[in-house]
Request: fold
Amino acid sequence: MSSSPQSASPLPHDDDDHDVGEEMPRMPSKPYSTQRRRNVVSTASTTIDMSKPIPVFQKSDSDYKSLRETLDKNYLFATLDNSQKDAIAKTMEPKEFQKDAVLIKQGDEGDFFYILVEGECDVHITKDGNTIKVATLRPGDGFGEIALMHNCPRTATIITPSGCKTWALDRNTYKQVMMTTVLTKRKRFQDMISKVPLFDKLTSLERHTVCDALQELSVSAGHVVVKQGDKGDTFYIIENGEVEITKSVDGAPAQKIGTLTAPQYFGEIALYDAEESKRQATCTAITDCHFLTLPQKAFHRLLGPLKKDMEKRISEYK
Ligand SMILES: Nc1ncnc2c1ncn2[C@@H]1O[C@@H]2COP(=O)(O)O[C@H]2[C@H]1O
Reply:
């Protein structure tokens, strides 16, 4: 990874939970190095000046290409359009960390969002005086978004046991680029999420984070959303429509075992149950349907606190 900064931007001191202001940030159609943004975004307590030039870090073509591909695959950027992802890829800067370095400390203020390029990082969470390792991050994974998007202290400590290479995105740029899409989406999805009893046990920060990761999917009546025997990689919440569940046992013709409607969910067994990572039943839209979906990585990270509740429901199916 080779790069050099073209211009540096000081980190802002804007804080508090942001509302989407009257004027929305729009991504430039030209590269940052030649264009300034004039929009201003008002927030609860402050204003983010969108006219600040955004730094461009020169990268080799191959670094740019692989970073851009990583952004395409990462669920945190799923709602951004191509020009927004181009802009992020241009502005990200390389940061390397030595063995045992602490990239993020729980409780600190957020400064950067990172994408891991090489090496591994462990995620440790301290609660009630106990520290536990909750996850290991691998190349392609992003982290550090929660404190930036929610103006809260860092929710976990990130340590690299072996040393690592990352791409880093400063707080101001992250918020400028993500604010429009993520906050608008969060407002829309909060209503829906509040109707799903499963999510009652999440804290409001956890619910916000789930909203930020949700994606949308519309299918027509007759579409097979999940097929028995397939490998599962998505969790579905029904926002509109009806889904029929059918299951074949020991090769016999599939039998209907139920119908789901909003705000019920499906697709969790193959994601949670390592032994049954294959879809256990077929789920077919019997009307046109609209779903909110969570990709597998987000599901594990964000719905970890609900594992027991989901396992209880899974055992009731059996
Ligand atoms: N359970 C988890 N699994 C994986 N990553 C997490 C988990 N909890 C928090 N993180 C990440 O750790 C980061 C710590 O800084 P942030 O709170 O800004 O953002 C956090 C998330 O990106």
Observations:
- The radius of gyration is 21 Å.
- Helices lie at 61-73, 82-91, 145-150, 171-194, 204-213, 269-272, 296-302, 307-317.
- Confidence is low (pLDDT under 50) at residues 2-47.
- The pocket of adenosine-3',5'-cyclic-monophosphate is lined by residues 104, 110, 123, 134-135, 143-147, 154-156, 158, 301, 304 (CB under 6 Å).
